Amino acid sequence: MIMSNGSFDVDFQTTSNIYSTPFTNIWGDSKQWSLSAANGLWLGSSGTDYTPMGIMQTPSGNSAGEGYGAYSYTARYEYANQPGGDYLLLWRADDTWLDSAKPGVLTEMDMLETWDNSATEQSTLHYYNTANDVNGQIFHSTSGLDLTKLHVYSMDWESGSLTFYIDGVKIYQVTGSSVPADTAHGGNNQVMGMGAETETSPVGMYVTEAQYTSTPDIAAQGGVTSVMAAQMARESGSGTGAAPPVVVPPVIGPLTSIAVSAPGTVVETSPGAGVSVAETITAPGATTLYEATFTSSNVAEGNWQAVAVNAAGTGSFEAAFAHTGDYLVVVNSTSNATVQGYSSAITITDTAAAPVLTSIAVSAPGTVMEASPGAGVSVAETITAPGATTLYEATFTSSNAAEGNWQAVAINAAGTGSFKAGFEHSGDYLVVVNSTSNATVQGYSSAVTITDAPVAPPAPVLTSIAVSAPGTVKETAAGAGVTVTETVTAPNATTLYEATFTAANVAEGNWQAVAVNAAGTGSFQAAFAHTGDYVVVVNSTTNATVKGSSSAITITDPVVTPPPVTPPVTPPAATPSFTIASITEVAGHLVVIGDKESGSAATIRETIDGNYLGVIEDHAPDGKFNFTLADTTKGSHTMLLSLDGSALSAKMSFVIAPAVVTPPPVVPPAPVKGLVISALTEDAGRLEMTGDKEIGKAATLRETMDGHYLGTLRDGMADGAFNMHIADVAVGAHVLYLTLDGSSTTATYDFTKLASGTIQHIVPASTSASSLIAVASHS
């Protein structure tokens, strides 16, 4: 039956065609398998036909088969004490058995196989072992099972763990890097398979059910425990010699709260010795309970033992377990239990057996340089040999001849040992054995490569000496000579010798040693006495084979600077003073005051016309003078004074102003009267006009609308003010026009007479008058 999420459950007792199931890859003799409703799928051999055979899902690639989840077979052996041969397994889906690309990772997982006439259920896990390049195996045995009875063999595959169960009881678990990943997580899926091989006498196995439950379906069914319980229920109803359910005895009355601690996994001191575990019961309200140990086949292994429960509801006791799969039952009565509790099954492991020496690994000596040709070498070597305590090593030539005796090597608890190995020739190698008389395990190193010590290169030969140029140098005093820092460049030299020679090739002193450093250079102070001297450097003062020379030096004398000469100071010739200080008027005459050179005369002239005005002689010892001129005309003048017998002159300009005349006072003319109509009012049925006009003048009044003459205005008052009555005018707009007789002066007056007789909007139209401007001037 194929279920959701890739799960399937094949009931071979109801299957008539094996090819309708996922198990379609069949090999071997067809007589070695059959299907029946009574026994399901039979696999085995009879008579003398021991051909290997099997029925499996097709391992066609990584994505074939199934990944993480629970795998189960329900099966029993046909014969009691039958030899090994039958198996139930998982095989890698890409049909790889041992994968050298993934050493240590499981590729074949046998959930059941036997090797000792049915006495022990064996689970074997296979992987590629890099230590010996062969099949690596992990074994787990479960004894005490009647393999002719139906049992459910299960494995729960999760990321990083494989957990194995028999009849729903956890047997053992593998975790860590050896657990493979499925295809969905970067590894390989597995296919389920059953078969028989390497049998030597008749064997047979009946498989009634094969089931795979995917991880999503495990979660949907409430976990692996629930999946196991369902499988056990189907096993109990198969009717073919099935073992009773794991949970015993039957529950009598309601199950309340007796909790029993889990015994876990315990190591026994020796195989078959069993273990004693401190157990704890939690049962609030109880005072005394009873416990007994049962086997995985639900058989009591001893009598009921009373356990006292304290006021806190807990009790402790020592429980004895003889086998893996044993569990505890705790009841409230040994005759009529109404409350009971169960522990999980214990896992008992045997003490670790002493490791067996299976392989010896020897480190590679590599390539080593000997101190001198033929000296050979000594190399620190390491042996890795788990399970060994003492091994023996010897060096062999490439012709497999021993080069010395066997030497003992102590191996520590970690399985390693170190020693010094002597090698005489390239190609020598080490052999390590577990016995010098009857070696059963041995290991070999790779061959050593010995190189000779390098030959020191010949000492470098001095081939050239270069000497720096001294150049041009100034001596401190004539004939003093100079000292110059010189540099020698001479690769491969250590000590050289230098001396100074004249231009005539005569040595000026003895040879002096010069140290040359590792870089091939050296410095020294060279003394030169003359221009043309040069330096010679040699590698020997007795038998020079290499020499070098500098260029010739040029020595310059110091420059003599004479003391400074200060010339006598000649005072500059005195410049005669010659100025006109002022020209003033004194008593009607002009007086010139100034300064000139003592003892000299000066001529004074008028520059305007060159008129000679006189000669100024000395007046005072210091040259100061004042000179009275004849009176001159009014106006601008410039006086030029010339010092006789020289180019010196002095000049001054001045003005003689005329006498000031005061003019008589100016009396302004009388103001001019204008012509103005001030107002027009109604007075007793007539119009009265008032205003102002020029005195002594008459004015004619007219109506401008029609030029109608209204009268002549005579003098009124003495100041020109007037009032004049005129005949009344008609209702309406009017303009009075007054003209000053004998002039162009006029005045107008605009008004309106209303029907009521009222004069309205009296606005003088304009007023204009002529004006007289008198201008007076004087000198």
UniProtKB/TrEMBL annotation:
Q: Does the keyword Hydrolase apply?
A: yes
Q: Where is the signal peptide?
A: none
UniProt keyword Hydrolase present: yes
Gene Ontology process terms (BP): carbohydrate metabolic process
Q: What domain of life?
A: Bacteria
Which keywords belong to this entry? Hydrolase
**Known InterPro entries for this protein?**
Beta-glucanase-like, ConA-like_dom_sf
Q: Which Pfam families match?
A: Glyco_hydro_16
GO MF terms listed in the record are: hydrolase activity, hydrolyzing O-glycosyl compounds
Q: Which residues form the GH16 domain?
A: 1-218
Which protein family is named in the record?
A: Belongs to the glycosyl hydrolase 16 family.
Q: Quote the protein name from its UniProt record.
A: Glycosyl hydrolase family protein
Organism listed in the record: Lichenicoccus roseus
